[in-house]
Design a protein that fits this description.
Length: 86
């Protein structure tokens, strides 16, 4: 896998690891042959962590809904009223 470093190599060549991550290439660090961490550039991390967008921005449709679509999604069902004894 491209961008994979053994821990001891990552420590010895940390500047090179960071430079590659800054070019948008995630770098995987392994310990005892298993992946343990990934080094990302800051912009990618923020995008993945969701710190750049609010919940409203994530849930809001990218384009305005047509009235029919909005009615289907958010309209109330035409339930009949019921009598209540007080």
């Amino acid at each position: 896998m491209k961008g994979t470093w053994q821990l001891q190599e990552a420590k010895a060549r940390f500047s090179k690891l960071v430079e590659q991550a800054l070019r948008g290439e995630p770098q995987t660090v392994t310990r005892r042959g298993r992946p343990v961490v990934v080094v990302l550039d800051w912009a990618t991390y923020r995008r993945l962590a969701g710190t750049e967008t609010s919940l409203w921005e994530l849930l809001r449709p990218s384009e305005a809904l047509f009235e029919e679509e909005a009615e289907i999604l958010f309209g109330r069902s035409p339930a009949a009223y019921r009598e209540v004894d007080l």
